[in-house]
Amino acid sequence: MNGIFNYIDRKSPIHELTGATKLIVLILWSLAAMTTFDTRFLACLPVVALVLFFISGIRFSDVKFLLWFTFVFMVLNNVLIFIFSPEHGVSIYGTRTVLLEGVGRWTVTAEQLFYHLNVVLKYLATIPLVILFVSTTDPSEFASSLNRIGISYKAAYSVSLALRYIPDIQREFGEIMVSQQARGLEMASRKQSLVKRLTNASAMLFPLIISSMDRIEVIANAMELRGFGKNRKRTWYSSRPFRAADFAACGFSVLLMAVSLALNFVNGGRYFNPFI
Predict the structure, then answer these.
(1) Under 8 Å between Cβ of 77 and 88
(2) CA-only gyration radius of the chain, Å
(3) Looking at the whole model, is its pTM more than 0.85?
């Protein structure tokens, strides 16, 4: 369960950027990837994302669960697109190059495969940066970043608490699972049916819910005793001023957004069409 929405503390230039900078970069990067289907541009973004991963010191083993989850979702999305709209690429690019005759309307065309390639590149362009943002941004600093861009500090602090709470839930879930297994309740035995394993797993929900409610009550009482929400504004212990690296990162993300918008004018639309 390690690496699921966890902040991973490392010494790297990415970690030293302020939370506000990383949030701005994430938003502009995602918008740049979403506003265009130019394959050349989308192919460059995953390469840059991999370089950022290397610079951050985050290993793929640290976030393997999220990577596997994204991969499964990406494959499922592409399969469903082909099942429900096998001619979508043909309608976009205006030509039809048959590569493999199929059954009924499910014929494999070069245009459809090219569209699927763009969908995959969009995943590869955005998801790694989202994972990198979550893994390199301290929850408290993330909350101060949200507050800095205009979001209420109460809402920002709620997000911070949620991000801090996820690792605690993971750890507590693991402890409950080990305790149940010590009592003879098998969770992962392949000799048992799927229904039996799901029934056994449901036995962990009640103690997990009870412990979660207790934790929420403790946190709520502590915040109330400290007068949280009394004033309209608050200061942040983890807030840091912008430095040269922050301005450079923001400038780079603005440049990416500008290139994405410019490509829409160059291509006469969102799509780069190599079949013309």
Answers:
(1) no
(2) 23
(3) no
